[in-house]
Every structure is written in structure tokens, then in C-alpha cells.
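Model: Ready when you are.
Researcher: Fold this.
Model:
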Amino acid sequence: PAKRYTFNELANEYLADGDVQALKSFNKERRYRVKQLMAKFGNLPLADFNTKIVKRFKTERLKVNKAATVNRTLALLKHMFKEGVEYEMVSEEVFNKVRKVKLVKENNRRLRYLSQEECKELIDACRPHLKPIVITALNTGMRLGEILNLKWEQADLKHGFILLSDTKNGERREIPINYTLRATLEAMPHGPESLYVFTNKDGNPFKSVSTSFPAACYKAGIKDFRFHDLRHTFASQLVMSDVSIQKVMKLLGHKSLTMTLRYAHLAPSHLVEAVRILDKNNGVSDTVSDTGTEMALLEGNTVSCKSL
């Protein structure tokens, strides 16, 4: 009879797999999630897993975690069982039962960003070590992990670019350095032996801002705001300054416009320019068009091009 492997045995094999370790998504967070799953399922035989057990686990996690977090954990669990088939520890039948469990529908429509005044208030409220990190986020749109892992060799101050090769979507990204960020980076003390940009007094890179960032938000009177929302702020401020969606997409490192289009509604001037094309087709001057369009937008009425 086949050996009844336990979940812990599968997890240990998974963590030791060189192909798994080579995955872009294999990081400390992924390893931590595996440990969480080991604490939950432990010595439960793999042959005993079924759709009901995984569904119950999903329901339990939704009581304490957000949908996105639960989905990442479920996706990891499914991948572990898929690899388990390759290890000859899990049967195809059991794997099919596990992968039947559907992911949770996520609400990704949340868009929280700061005004220019709030940005200044937040920066002023930051502790000295946090201030350059926040300034970098506001002026580049980089993710927290990209910022904390940034090395001096990636910051090309001479040519004015930050070069990111290890990104979330696996593609190389070049981010321009503006004057604000250049001044911030140039003011930070570092020598030839310095490796990481944002380090503590011992020269080690910061691992988290989970304490200092909420404290700065509280001091600045900013509520319901996460560090990732600095990325939203970067994109929103650009769009509201009439920077094209395509350019914002490239700066954020999105593979398609789908994710970037969530910011499109912040650029009402583009809608005005669009309807002005009809004015030109009908021989209406720009001056009349400006006045008529503004009145139409203010009054909320539908006005024909001819009537303007």
C-alpha cells in the first residue's frame, strides 16, 4: 500500500524544491504562508483532503483576513498539491478535490490617495528614517518591497533613473528620478561600502514600516491610509496633472491598461477635449466652445453642438 504522507511532509518537500525556490513569487512571505498552513493542517494525511475541508478553511480565514490574502493562501495550497502530484505524494483525485475550491471575489475598486497638502503634512509627520522612504514612494510609485530592497547600484543619479529588474510582473522597469527625489537621495549619507539605500544605524536594510508609517499617518491626521496607497497617490496626481494613462501605465509597471484605467476618471479634461472635436466639426470657435462646455458641465444638461 502507498505511504500515507502528511501535509507537513509535503510542505517540507515543497520548501526544499529548487524549482519552487527559483519562482519569482518565492519569498519570505510565501515561506511564512507555508508555515501557517503547516500549523493548520500539520499531520493530516494528504489522502484525507477534500473539497469540504478546504472550503471550511477558506471560510475560517475570511473571518480574520481580507479576500486578497485568503486568495493568495488558497493559490499557494493548490500549488503545493499540484507539486505533490509530481512528488508522487498526492493522487490526482485528491488534487482535483483541492483545486475545485474557487477563489474569493475581490473588490479592487478601492482608490485612496492624498492631496498635495496631505502629502506635505504626511512627510512632515514622518520620523527621519521614514521620510526619505515616503518621498521615494510619492515620487516613483514604487512598491514598499521595491523601495526597502533598493540598492545604490540601482539608483543611477548621474543619468537620473532607478533601474528595477526584480519586479512583481517579472519585467525590467526604469523609473525617472525627479529633482525632489534626487535631492533626497543625494542628501543621504553613504559610502562605497554601502549596499542598500534605506538602512538602519547598523547598515542593514529596513524590513518593515508597519509601526512608523501608521504613527506618521496618525500624527498627520490621515485616516484609512496604507503604505500602498502612496502608489495610488503617485498615479492619481499624475493623471490629475494631465499625464497620459499610457505613460502612467509604464511608470507603474502595469502590463496592460486594465489596472491603470482605474485612475482615468480623475482626468475630466480629457473628456472635455473629446467633445470639443465635435465643436470643430460643426465650425464652432474655441472661445465659444470653452464657455458652452463649461456651462453644460456646471448645469449638468445635455447641450447639442449646434446650440453652443
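Researcher: Now this one.
Model:
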Amino acid sequence: MVPDLSGLWVPIVTPLDASGEVDLVALGRLARRLLGEGCAGLVALGTTGEPATLRTGERRAVVDVCAEACTESGKPLIIGVGSNCTQSTIDEATTFEGTPALVAFLIVVPYYTRPTAAGVIDHFRAVAAASATPIVAYNVPYRTGRGLSADALLELADSPSIIGLKQAVGALDADTLDLLRRKPRDFQVLTGDDSFIAPTILMGGVGAITASAHVCTDLFARMIDAARSGVSDTAATLGHALLPVVTAGFAEPNPACWKAALYALGEIASPTLRPPMSAASDATTRRLLDEITGVGGANALTSTNSA
């Protein structure tokens, strides 16, 4: 059976202590809070989790903590394992096979080397053929230097083991809309652009993988539920209310702002990131915290519009 990817997924940050070591206690606490506030599931080792700067043992420990939290809540886990080397991607996926609560691997389009579209398609098919776990492709051209057209994405959708897509192209563009129009019924599109969650779902997406939902989690969950139910007024109200949070949270490179906010809110012990990433500025952090405080009024709006 194809896993259901609908709803809100959070690509969870990896909390670090002041010395830069992984804080597994804070990670577990954060994971349980997110799952308890409406998340459909978690994504471990997504870009927001800083996997590129985690050691092998640290990545394993992060996955284990997230898997335990997901298992306790009866909710699924996606693990990010993609790289710009096909065999390395297969090797890493193999190490995580059999993880409790695992339903899919998130595989990014190979970055830096900029293969052809045909080469990217071959990469995904090779990983899918070698994996017992379904694959969600991750198309994020501003990070990888290689984007995929609707036609290329539809080729991926024809592979039974490639069950979905995280689409993060910085817009709800013509290729995304064409994909949503022509995709197979069981190919699930999740938006990775936090500003376009509601309209993407209203046009045929099933949910979102969104870093912004580390904060205001229940409101992001309500927005997605409203959009999936076709309650466009409520989805729009929440989308408008949450947009300033999204904008402030991505004013500096991800995940600096979300870690700063979580630290200020007392959820993690430090806003530390692994170099070369650096902490968010005080001004940006204050702006984000102000926007989080200001969005509280959306609770009343949703209860009114959903009546």
C-alpha cells in the first residue's frame, strides 16, 4: 500500500548545545510537541536538520530519536538521505532501512554536478530500484543548480516506487501547475515553499513539508486541513495571517531563524548552528518573535470561518 503523505510535515531542526554537540533530549521533546500539535509526521535529516554538517553517528542518533517519537504517536517518519552521488545515496538509504515508523526516503535532485534531466531521472530510478522503502523526490533548484520540468517530474511519477514530490521552486509556477494537472492520481505533491502552501493544495497538492511550522504549528495544520477540505476562506485567512511569520523566518539562511525563535521560546537550549552556518541576527530574531506573537489572533478567525 502506498503511504499517505497528506497533511503537515515538519523537517525538524537538529538542536545543538552551546558547544555544538547534538542535543538529543531537546530533539525528542520538540518532536513530541510537533506531533502533538497537528503534524502528520516528521522529516528527519531534511535540509533544516543540517545533515550536511552532522557526523554519521549523529545522523543515526537523530533518526532514532525521531523514529521513537513517531512510533509513540502512531505517526510516520520520512528520512532525508539524498546526495549528489547515486551510489552514496543508495548506501545511506540502506543503512536506514527498517527504521521504525519509516514510510519514505526524501531524495534531493543531485546538486553541484548539475547532471542532465535524463541523468537525474536515472539517479532516482536507480535509488528506487535499490530501496525497499518508497521515494519522495525533492526538487529545489535554487539549492541544487538543477531544476526539473513538469515533463521530467511526470517521468519520475511513472515509477511505482517514487510516490511523491517535495516541490520547492520559489513559486507556484506553470510547471508545478502542469504537474498537478497531469500527474497520476496516486502521485502525491507536497509543497516545500512555505508561502504557497494553501494555493498549492487547492490546486491538487496533498500537503507540505514546512520549516515554518516549528512555530504556530497548530495554525499551519489548520490551514492545510482547510485547504484539503476545500474551505478556501479559512485557508486564505490563515495563509494571510501566517505569511509574515514565513517571511521573517526565511529572512536569513534556514534554519538560523527557526532555531533562534525556538531558543527564545525556551524549546531548545541554544540557537547554535554548525559552521559555516551562523546564528540569526538579533534584529531578525526580534522581528520573527513579534510576528509569531501577532499571529495569535488567527485562532479566532479560523473558528469563525470554519463554523
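Researcher: Key takeaway?
Model: The chain has 13 helices and eight strands.
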